[in-house]
Amino acid sequence: MVLPVLWATLWIAGSEFIRNQLLFASSWTEHYRSLGLSFPAAPVNGAIWGLWSLAFAIVVFVLSRKFTLWQTVALAWFTGFVLMWLVIGNLGVLPYRLLYAAVPLSLVEVCVAAWILRKR
Description:
This protein is mostly helical. It has one domain (about 1-120). The chain contains five helices and no strands. It has helices at about 1-25, 25-35, 45-65, 70-90, 100-120. α3 runs antiparallel to α4 (about 70-90). It is globular, with a radius of gyration of 15 Å. The termini are close together. The model has no long low-confidence stretch (mean pLDDT about 95).
């Protein structure tokens, strides 16, 4: 049980890093700059994202024990991403144009994580 959660955590953390630090880093920093803020990219921020990845993997694991694969994906994606986007959108720090790529990429992220966790 621990090993699949760790694999899913690594997958989630890697997906988040690639999406936000490699693919869209300039969009995030430009958006934050336009708000008069600096994009939070200190090591402590990366550590918190690692903790988020572990917590999200645990949530997906628990859901995968009670629901089908597709129900798990839907519930996990909604609780992990839609709620996060609502919060950061409400705070005014979400660059909405990123959602065109973030939505499908986050769905792939959750699908693979759920698959890892259902394979045990």
